[in-house]
Each structure stands twice: as structure tokens, then as C-alpha cells.
Amino acid sequence: xxxxxxxxxxxxxxxxxxxxxxxxxxxxxxxxxxxxxxxxxxxxxxxxxxxxxxxxxxxx
Length: 60
Known about the structure:
Layout: H1 7-18, H2 21-34, H3 45-55
Helix pairs in contact: 1-2
């Protein structure tokens, strides 16, 4: 791992070397999520449930 690169950059570089499109996308997604660029997609019911679990305040 290069001295100045962050973990996700390292992952991205390794993934690109292996030409694994999935790994590259995964690393890019992780990066974007950390930067807050990706809002969770709420199209699937499972995703919706997970979103509610973590992002809505329980009405007490």
C-alpha cells in the first residue's frame, strides 16, 4: 500500500489490477457513501426496512 493512499484507494487499485468490475464498483460505492454522495436507494422493501431501522427516530 502506498504511503499516501487511503484504504479505499488501495482497494480500488488492487481491484483494477485484477480487472474485477464488481470489486471496482464496490470500492467506488464505498468511497461515495463515505463522502455522503449516495443516498440509500429505497426501491426494495428490504432496503426500505433497513432505512427505517436506522434513519427514522422511534416515536416515544
